[in-house]
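SEQUENCE-TO-STRUCTURE ENTRY
===========================

Backbone structure tokens: a row of integers, each naming the local backbone shape at its residue.

Task: work out the structure tokens from the sequence, keeping to the layout shown below.
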Amino acid sequence: MLRKSILVFFDDILIYSSDWRSHILHLTAVLDVLKREQLVENWKKCYFDQTTVEYLGHINSKDGVAMDPNKVKSGIERPVPKNVKGVRSFLGLTGYYRKFIKDYGKIAHPLTDLTKKDEFKWGDSEQTASEFLSRNVIFVNIKSI
């Protein structure tokens, strides 16, 4: 049932279905597995009969999966990194979409180099790479919506 009607990430389980009857069957199957494996549910964290669910930075609905608009907005409004930690965070965000961005590794190279050097120096090549990746991540997000 994984990736057909269920997504699991650590201790989060998302059950999705095309209709109510199927959903009850999927939900029952998951609860049966949890019981069999002696795992417990945290009912305070459970939500049922939702038409839209935010899950791992995505919005899941009957129309499919889209990026959370708040995540896209934070990517657009992201300040220029001021240190190695900031560059790593930016690369983590954009790296999530690397398969959609042709030559991602080559484009991100100046930024990746910043994480290896002892001296942090933001220059033109880093700015160009940052702007290009930001624009393309936003484009990927808009296309997925």
Notes: The radius of gyration is 20 Å.
